[in-house]
Write a structure and sequence with these properties.
By secondary structure, the protein is α/β, with parallel strands linked by helices. It has 13 helices and eight strands.
Amino acid sequence: MDKTLFQMCQIDRGMTMKGWAVKTLVVFIALATLNDLKAKEIRIGFVDVNRVLKEYRDLQNAKNQLNSFVSQWQAQLDSVKHIIDSMKSAYEQEKPMLSDEAKLQKEQEIQQKEEEYKGLWNSIWGPNGQFERKKREIVQPFVRKVDSVITDLAKSLKYDLVLDVSSGVVLYGNTEDDFTDLVIQELNKEYLVAIDTTSIAKPKVAVFPLKEDENARAVNLGTRLQGFIASALENSPRIDLISTATVNDALQREAGPTMEIVDVGLCLRVARTIGADYFVFGEVNKSGEDVLFRLKLYSVKDGRQLQEETGQSADRDVDLMIQAGDAARRLIARQEF
């Protein structure tokens, strides 16, 4: 089920067998046309696009980000599949003792759950499903960047035509006209500058348990969401996340072991003691199986609320992890540090 970025980029750049055949034909037509013109010396450059895609570091980060979503989606599917298997196992054990009417009801319940699984699968992997949409959102901008850099370098190097060595079209070419290394250097130059810039002044961020209503407190939703939010932010290149263990230890020292009364003022005092520059706090309410939460980003310097994001989910860890993680990433992405 997991698709590699290399496969994705092949599809996006038309590197299927059909695409290869079309590109080959276009190349030979172009070469024949240019040869017939004889108006000037033709300069042909070469780029190993497959190597560029593998060594473009932002693109690899995009792959990792997309794969994290794939893992979450697969966990959702596995959860529903586990329920179906449990329902079937229980039905087989109870079947001898059930009436025909009860058997029919159990079989219909299993069938409904199987339809739910198929619907979920299609919503993820089907046409224009979550996978395709996320791929376009996360991966495609970097694929377009590769095209742009190759074009700009080809113009600056005065090449009339650029061939992709990895397509299999080129059987021989002068290595002096292979500017693959230049493409990779240009792409990764921006990545390295970003790393250098963020490493100078990375803000420290603390994530606190959310304030709970009575129903949310009964199932420990505030702390559960704290963990999901921290997990989503721990690899963010924009911030330095303070561990939840450090946050909760300081919170217990300030509020007591039960941490029953947690508000913005308390979070602000604790954030200052642990050296945070910003902190995430909010509230969560639960009604039946529906969970509503609001995340807020605060400045430790003056206590001001800077950003806010809301989310809704069923009370299932997989759903909470996805919804809270998305909201947390949006919260940080909107803030100019």
